[in-house]
Specification:
globular, 3 helices, alpha+beta
Amino acid sequence: MNDTNDAALAALARTWLDTLFAPWVKALDLQVESVRAGRAVLRLPFAPELCREGGTICGQALMAAADTAMVLAVSAQLGEFRPTTTVSLNTAFMRPVAEGDVRIVAQLLKPGRTLMFGEIEMYGADGKLAAHATTTYAMV
């Protein structure tokens, strides 16, 4: 895909976020940085309401952001939003995020007709890997 198509996919991803996701996902205020076929880069703004005791972003918020990013990567691969269901989301948390936004990079590894496999990396504001996830999605 070229840059023009990538820009169109990013705009489409913003529309999908605004219109198709649950209100609690929208409350994460995820920002689309870039989208191309099979790849989505989002930013999760740091917010105190996403933090657990001790002031670090809770794992549930990170996993929801990761799952959302991969849904956008899958949809970008397909060129349209289609219903999917998460079959697996396995996450390893490597370091806490106590300040600054989280950069989420979702990459489709193997697109298929019925199953899609991907991985997501989440980076703290310091650029260090904070969490890594692998995913499997089924087309519904």
